[in-house]
Each structure stands twice: as structure tokens, then as C-alpha cells.
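Quick one, C-alpha cells below:
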């Protein structure tokens, strides 16, 4: 029996606001849920039935749920972090179906006030983190083929990301070339990091080695040179985006409280990658390459941008040599001040007066501190260089009701009076967006409450996403419902 569901006859508030605004709205982070039986069919075609059975037994991310099988004693003994639960809104059946069925999502997108959306399927965001190479590569390949197939009929409004594994540059390049050249995908997602064992601890066995790891963020101190991959991104005209979790890292490792583990964990992971790319000189070596960090908001980006400039101003090489070098201490003048103002505190002990730097002098002031210019790889010689290497390269996906976006648009407080490049990544389909039709209305509510301006809203909903996705691929929006507006934007900026 087929149940015919009545569709809403009246336009949603979001759809009405979209008409009022008069410019295209691009959502850069709409989540979808894969249909499991179909995915398994694709996986079998790619890698065979044995891989399918192994995959069902070892789902990516499933290890975090071992918490539920442990006793409280085991949880504390292993410091197992409590995972999230009930992550999908279930009350609204229509919304639940929407995130799994591209045809329905395409039909309902306008109800959200959205013209075009970049789609982040749930399993695809986790697949690049699978530890076993054979499984990781097979699952990423199968998911990319699956999503290319099911979203192809709706390419005028929806484009899915390709899942790109990053354990090695070779692996990443191979999947990137297949996704773009064979499947025709034009948006990609990379993991924010790879967990790598610390060699010195491998002698203690696998159980210890699996826990004692370091985080490779593909830039500074990386195990591999990822420049060939970044160069391939430029060649194939795709923008690397990431949707990385840091739950289980240090401060996201409460045994008892999942909220403690969840809050800001996307921002934490994104910031690690962002700093690695910046200080590793990736944005200097690839001046045309931009990056996007999804679901972590934009407040951390504004803070990091200002913090890097402040650190350069107070910790650049010339400043250190001029103001912090222990060799420039005037010991005679220092002694005179101690005599004049020290009183009984120093009386009779001035012969013990050192350099004034205290107990930690030998640590704070080693004779050979090593390289002083830690901004050299990033190519920073003046504060404006930070703007050019940071602000012009990094974009920050932000949910439509995240009022902290005001920090990204607070031009009076930000260096050089610039906006940080925040843009709409609604996270529709996850627990925090139970109703897809609320997206644009939520964003506009921030204007009504004077949190951001009408101009800021346009940058948030339209200009920044257009800017990002056309930065390498001028034709990114060709053949979509926003093709005309994208072309007008490109002409307005002289491209």
C-alpha cells in the first residue's frame, strides 16, 4: 500500500525570506544518510563480498561505542570517552526521510530557503578515518561512486562531496583523480588529521601503540610531504574541505559526560589543521588554494586570526632579539634598582643576583634556543602577510543559528577591518537541525536581532560560498540554478 503524503501548500517562512532577499542562498553543509543495502551493493562491486562482511563487523567510528559494553571500572581504567547517542532527529518523519532520499531533498530544498547545497553524507565523512588501508580505500571508492550516481539527476541543486583518504599523498591523489576525472565530482572532503603511532612506544605492543599517537595535520611536522596532493587539488580545480571530529582527544575525553566531549570538538580539530597548514607554509606555497572547515563555527577562526597576528607582533624574530634577548640585560642598572628598592629583601645577598629572570633562567634563556623565526615557513614578515596567508585562504562553515558568527563579522575588532570568511553550513540532517525548513529563517533572525547586518548576511549566505567554490573552478555553478547569479558575481569582481 502506498501512502500519499500531502506537501505543504503554503510557502515556509524561509522560502518567503529567500524571495525577499533576492540573492542566491548556498548551504555548504547539508547532511544526508546513506541507504545501507545500496551502499553494501556498491562496496561488493568495488571490493568483493569478503570486504562487505568485514565492513559490517568493523564500521568506521564504531570503536567509540565500546563504552556501552564496558563496566564502569573498565571505562575509567581505559579512560573511554562517552560517545554521543540519538544523533538523528526522529520526531519529524518527513525530515528523516529527506536526508536519505536525494529526490525528496531536492524537492524540499526550497522550503529551507536554499537554492543550492553541498552535501556531506554521514558515512562518507567518517570513511577516510578507517585504519585498515584496504578497507579504507574500498569504502571511500564505493561511497564516492554511490553518491555520484544517486545525486547526478539533481546536480542543478545538489552536489555531494567525494571522500578523500589522506594516510599518504599517493592514496589521496589516486582517489582524488578518480573522483574528479572519472566520477565528475567537484567537491571534496579530507579528514582533518591522521592518527599515527609514536615509534618510540611501538615496542610496548599494539594496545599501547594504538593509544599513544600523534596527530598528523598534513602541514607542519607531517610524516609526508603533502604538497603533491595540494598541487593536484589546484590542477583539478577542487577546494579541500574538512569535517573532522576531535572527540577522544585530551580535553574531549570525559568518561561520563558526552556533552563535555562534544562541545567545540569540531572547532578543536579544525583549528589544529588550520594552524598546521598556516605554519607549515601551505598557504604561502599555494597562493590560489583555499580551505574550508565545516561545522565548527567561525568564532574560533576570528580568534585564531587575531591571535596569530598578536603572536607575530610579540614573538617575531626581530622583536625577540630587540626586547627579549637575555644578552641585552643591563646588569649594572638592574643591580642599582635592586639596591634602591630591594631593602631587607635583598640586603646582603646582592652577590647572588643573577640576570633577573628567576629560577627558570637557564630554561627561559638557553644559550642556543634554535631557530627564532618560526613564522618563516609561513612567509610572514609583516602583519599584512598574516591576512594574506590566513584570511584569504580559510573559510568557516557556520550553522544558521550560531550567533557567534558576529565575531567573524565584527570588523571594528578584527585586524585591518576585514571580515573573517564565515559562510552558511547549516548541518541540516543532524540532531541540532530538526527542521530543514528553518535554515534561512534562523539566519535572518540574526539580522532582526541586530547581531549581524543585512550586508553581513549576504556575505554569509551568498558571497563567501560563491567566492570559495569559484576560486579554482570558475564553472563550479555552471548548469545549476544559481549559474546566472554566479556569473554576475564573477563579473562584479573582475574574474
Amino acid at each position: 500500500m502506498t501512502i500519499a503524503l500531502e506537501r505543504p501548500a503554503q510557502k515556509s517562512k524561509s522560502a518567503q525570506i529567500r524571495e525577499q532577499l533576492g540573492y542566491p542562498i548556498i548551504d555548504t553543509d547539508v547532511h544526508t544518510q546513506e541507504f545501507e543495502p545500496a551502499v553494501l551493493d556498491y562496496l561488493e562491486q568495488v571490493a568483493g563480498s569478503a570486504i562487505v562482511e568485514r565492513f559490517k563487523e568493523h564500521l568506521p567510528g564504531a570503536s567509540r561505542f565500546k563504552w556501552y559494553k564496558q563496566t564502569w571500572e573498565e571505562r575509567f581504567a581505559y579512560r573511554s570517552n562517552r560517545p554521543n547517542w540519538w544523533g538523528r532527529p526522529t520526531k519529524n518523519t518527513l525530515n528523516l526521510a529527506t536526508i536519505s532520499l536525494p529526490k525528496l531533498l531536492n524537492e524540499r530544498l526550497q522550503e529551507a530557503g536554499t537554492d543550492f547545497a553541498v552535501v556531506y553524507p554521514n558515512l562518507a565523512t567518517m570513511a577516510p578515518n578507517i585504519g585498515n588501508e584496504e578497507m579504507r580505500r574500498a569504502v571511500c571508492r564505493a561511497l564516492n561512486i554511490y553518491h555520484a550516481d544517486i545525486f547526478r539527476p539533481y546536480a542543478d541543486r545538489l552536489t555531494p562531496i567525494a571522500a578523500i583518504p589522506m594516510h599518504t599523498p599517493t592514496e589521496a591523489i589516486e582517489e582524488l583523480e578518480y573522483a574528479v576525472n572519472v566520477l565528475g565530482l567537484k567537491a571534496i572532503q579530507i579528514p582533518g588529521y591522521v592518527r599515527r603511532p609514536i615509534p618510540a612506544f611501538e615496542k610496548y605492543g599494539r594496545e599501547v601503540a594504538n593509544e599513544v599517537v600523534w596527530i598528523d595535520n598534513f602541514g607542519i611536522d607531517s610524516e609526508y610531504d603533502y604538497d603533491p596532493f595540494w598541487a593536484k587539488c589546484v590542477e583539478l580545480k577542487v577546494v579541500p574541505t574538512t569535517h573532522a571530529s576531535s572527540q577522544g582527544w585530551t580535553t574531549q575525553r570525559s568518561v561520563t559526560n558526552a556533552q563535555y566531549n562534544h562541545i567545540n570538538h569540531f572547532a578543536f580539530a579544525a583549528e589544529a589543521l588550520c594552524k598546521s597548514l598556516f605554519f607549515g607554509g601551505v598557504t604561502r606555497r599555494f597562493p590560489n588554494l583555499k580551505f574550508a572547515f565545516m561545522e565548527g563555527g567561525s568564532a574560533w577562526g576570528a580568534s585564531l586570526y587575531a591571535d596569530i597576528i598578536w603572536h607575530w607582533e610579540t614573538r617575531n624574530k626581530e622583536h625577540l632579539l630587540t626586547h627579549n634577548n637575555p644578552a641585552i640585560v643591563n646588569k649594572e642598572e638592574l643591580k642599582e634598582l635592586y639596591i634602591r628598592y630591594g631593602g631587607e629583601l635583598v640586603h646582603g645577598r646582592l652577590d647572588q643576583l643573577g640576570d633577573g629572570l628567576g629560577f627558570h633562567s637557564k630554561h627561559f634563556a638557553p644559550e642556543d634556543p634554535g631557530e627564532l623565526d618560526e613564522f618563516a615557513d609561513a612567509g610572514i614578515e609583516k602583519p599584512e602577510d598574516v591576512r594574506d596567508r590566513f584570511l584569504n585562504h580559510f573559510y568557516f562553515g557556520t550553522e544558521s543559528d550560531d550567533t557567534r558568527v558576529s565575531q567573524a563579522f565584527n570588523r571594528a575588532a578584527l585586524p585591518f577591518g576585514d571580515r573573517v570568511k564565515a559562510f552558511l553550513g547549516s548541518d541540516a540532517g543532524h540532531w541540532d537541525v530538526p527542521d530543514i525548513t528553518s535554515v534561512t529563517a534562523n539566519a535572518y533572525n540574526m539580522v532582526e536581532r541586530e547581531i549581524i547586518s543585512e550586508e553581513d548576511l549576504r556575505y554569509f549566505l551568498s558571497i563567501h560560498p560563491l567566492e570559495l567554490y569559484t576560486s579554482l573552478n570558475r564553472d563550479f555553478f555552471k548548469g545549476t540554478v544559481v549559474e546566472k547569479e554566479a556569473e554576475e558575481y564573477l563579473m562584479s569582481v573582475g574574474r
